[in-house]
Structures are given as structure tokens and as C-alpha cells.
Design brief:
The protein has about 270 residues and is mainly α. Helix content is about 70%, strand content about 0%. It is built from 14 helices and no strands. The protein has helices at about 20-40, 45-65, 75-90, 95-110, 115-125, 130-135, 145-165, 165-170, 180-185, 190-195, 200-220, 220-225, 225-250, 265-274. Residues about 1-10 have low confidence and may be disordered.
């Protein structure tokens, strides 16, 4: 499928077994479409929430008839008919799809986060469900695996927040916890003016170190999972860690120098993965 957004972490790479490319695409199509409803275009907040409510109604329709492929509303059939088929065929839980939707709804109404715990709660719904669904597709959704998958997915979500500070500011969103900003003496005015102060660098260094630790805490999962999924996951973790390195080497200037992975970065990531 066409992907018209820059993605540091490919959702369906050639490392995926052929049998899983279709279900992963169906899941991605749903998540991408819902995310776009929350983020893209010039719709009002009320219109965005109404559109997401239509997605919620379709999920309820699928959940009400487990194992079946219920008829979707015509305008949403292209998303929900293949999704229902994938959920039925692979016996996927419906809860992660509702969790993703709740995060997209939250994007419409919540623009600031008071503390790290609140931010992680958001990550638990915006990112972790994807990892959980992948483990279910691989029949590897054990309690320990789910915990470490959550750490990786939350870590990757935080990486995206730190590299996209300026992008999110333009959307009137700040994912840096208020408590951390206040502790380091960084204000919203500093973000607006793109001030690379010692306080800003200290704040970003703190966030990067905490995010790196979170990724490392989940990394053993990649070695425990066999074959392609383990290789794919090691590469994804290395991608997150590499972006953190790039932010550090750039003096924490994510305002004017948003890190983008290039050919040399991919070579380093592949070397570390192997």
C-alpha cells in the first residue's frame, strides 16, 4: 500500500514472512487512517471526533460477531472488511484496536502532558497495541514477551516525540512532560523561539537517556524470538537507538536539524543487528 508519511520504522518490510504481509497491511491501514483523521486536514475537533466515532462503531460491529466478517458501512468497507477478515483468520484480540482508537481521540483533545506517567499511559495505547498484535500474529504473546514488547513500543514512540518536537509544536502539541520542563527550567516560550539553551540540552539529555534505558529493557525480546521476527525487531530497536545518537550528536537541536536516517545509518544499524 502507498505510505505518504515519512516512517523511520517500516511497518511491513521484506523481513516479514509473506503470510503476514497482508494482515500487517490491514492493521496498518486501519491505524494510519484513524491517525490521519486525528491529525491531517483542516477539520474541526468535533468533526474529527465524529469520524473516529464511526471507526469505533465499526470495531463494535466486529467485536459483536467474533470470527465473522460483518458488513461495514460502505464508506469504510475498504478499511474494515479486510481488517475484520484478518481479525477472524488470526483470532486477534479486539482490545488493541480500541486502545489505538482511544489514543487517536486523545490526540484531538489533549495537547499537553503533566508528567511522565501520563505520557506513558498515552504510549500504552498509541504504540504498545501494535507490538501486542504482532506478537499475536506470531503466536508469541506470552506475558513476558508482552511486557518487553511494551517497553520497545513505548520507547519508539518517545523517540518519535523527541525528534518531532518542532513538528508537534506546529500542531500545538507538546509531549515533553510539564514536570520535566519545569524541573529543567524550560518554558513553552523557549520551544516557540527554538532556544538551544543549556537548560534545553539538559532536558533533552535526560529524556534521551531515559528512553534509551526503556529500549534496552525490552531488547532481550528480540533475541528470544526466532527467525525473521527477531531480526526485524533487533533492527527496529537499533533504529530507535540510532536516532537518539543522532539527536545527541546534533547538540539536541531537533528544531532545525530533525534527525533522518540515511544510508550510513542503515549500514550501522544492520551491522549492530547482525
Amino acid at each position: 500500500m502507498a505510505v505518504d508519511h515519512y516512517e523511520n520504522f517500516p511497518v511491513a518490510s521484506l523481513l516479514l514472512p509473506r503470510r503476514l504481509r497482508e494482515p500487517v497491511t490491514d492493521i496498518y491501514r486501519y491505524a494510519r487512517a484513524a491517525d490521519d483523521l486525528a491529525d491531517e486536514g483542516d477539520a474541526s475537533d468535533a468533526q474529527r471526533l465524529a469520524s473516529l466515532a464511526a471507526f469505533r462503531a465499526e470495531l463494535h460491529r466486529i467485536g459483536a460477531e467474533p470470527g465473522s466478517v460483518p458488513a461495514a458501512a460502505p464508506e469504510l468497507a475498504g478499511i474494515f472488511t479486510p481488517l475484520a477478515r484478518t481479525i477472524a483468520r488470526h483470532q486477534l484480540p479486539i482490545t488493541p484496536f480500541f486502545d489505538l482508537l482511544s489514543a487517536f481521540e486523545q490526540d484531538v483533545t489533549v495537547k499537553r502532558y503533566d508528567d511522565y506517567a501520563t505520557l506513558l499511559d498515552y504510549c500504552s495505547r498509541s504504540a504498545n497495541p501494535v507490538g501486542r498484535l504482532m506478537l499475536h500474529l506470531y503466536d508469541a504473546a506470552t506475558p513476558d514477551n508482552l511486557v518487553q514488547s511494551d517497553a520497545i513500543c513505548s520507547g519508539l514512540q518517545l523517540v518519535n516525540f523527541w525528534q518531532d518536537v518542532r513538528v508537534d509544536w506546529r500542531k500545538q502539541r507538546i509531549y515533553l512532560p510539564r514536570a520535566d520542563m519545569q524541573h529543567h527550567g524550560v518554558s513553552e516560550d523557549d520551544l516557540a523561539a527554538c532556544r538551544l539553551t543549556p537548560a534545553w540540552r539538559a532536558l533533552m539529555a535526560f529524556q534521551i537517556e531515559r528512553t534509551r534505558a526503556l529500549l534496552h529493557s525490552g531488547a532481550p525480546l528480540a533475541r528470544r524470538l526466532p527467525g525473521r521476527i527477531g531480526l526485524e525487531l533487533r533492527l527496529v530497536v537499533q533504529g530507535g537507538l540510532r536516532i537518539l545518537e543522532r539527536i545527541e550528536r546534533g547538540g539536541y537541536d531537533v528544531f532545525m536539524n530533525r534527525p533522518v536516517l540515511g544510508a550510513r545509518d542503515w549500514a550501522v544499524m544492520l551491522w549492530r543487528t547482525v
